[in-house]
Amino acid sequence: ENEIVSERKFIEFEKNLKSEHNQTLSDKITDLEKNIISIKKTRDDLEFEMKEEKDKYSKLIEQIETEKNQYQEWLNDEQKTKCKLETEIRNLSVNVQKYTNVITQKNQQIESLKIGLKETQKSIKTLENEHQQSMKRVLSQNNRQILTLEKSLRETEQRLTISQHRKRNLELRIQKIEDEEQRKIAAVHDAIKCLTNSFSMQTLFQINHQNDDDFMTEKKENNEILNEIKITKKKKSLIKPAKSKSKSKSKS
Question: If residue 43 lies in a helix (H) or strand (E), which one and from where to where?
């Protein structure tokens, strides 16, 4: 019985041990599975990250390649522009040399022009002196002419006053003659009226013709006197502007 009991205990112990062992194994298996799942997950994450990094680096490589190509193009363009600039610099140096030669020639021309200018200034000064002397001579001659003109003007004014007096006298005489003529004409008309009855028409016509001839001769003389007065007035009007011109010349 004791052996049976001990066997039973041993069997139970064995069962318990197996159950415990199974439990631990199951726990370990579950833990292992969990670890495997986590490892898979980390592997997937790592692969995803690696893929992203790969894409990223591939894009960077492409960008770097494009930048490299752009840089190469820029470098080629820069070399071309450098060559162009070098040629332009050479051309500019040649042009500068030409312009320096032109400038030296222009400076020489300027120096020669300065010398010519000094000579022309000297000649201008001599011409100015000659002009001043000639102007002084001309002014002195003009002053003499002005004095003679003023003298002649005074004489003409004296003559003008005399002619004006004569004109007044002539006007008075003309007025008297016209009055006498009117009186004579009235007397003749009265005489004609009186003599129409005693004389014939022929004798009357001869008397009228003779009176008309006398009237025309007197009228002609009076017109000549008036023409002389007009001529003297015109002379006076011409003398006055000559006097004003002579005064303006003396002022200048």
Answer: helix 2-195
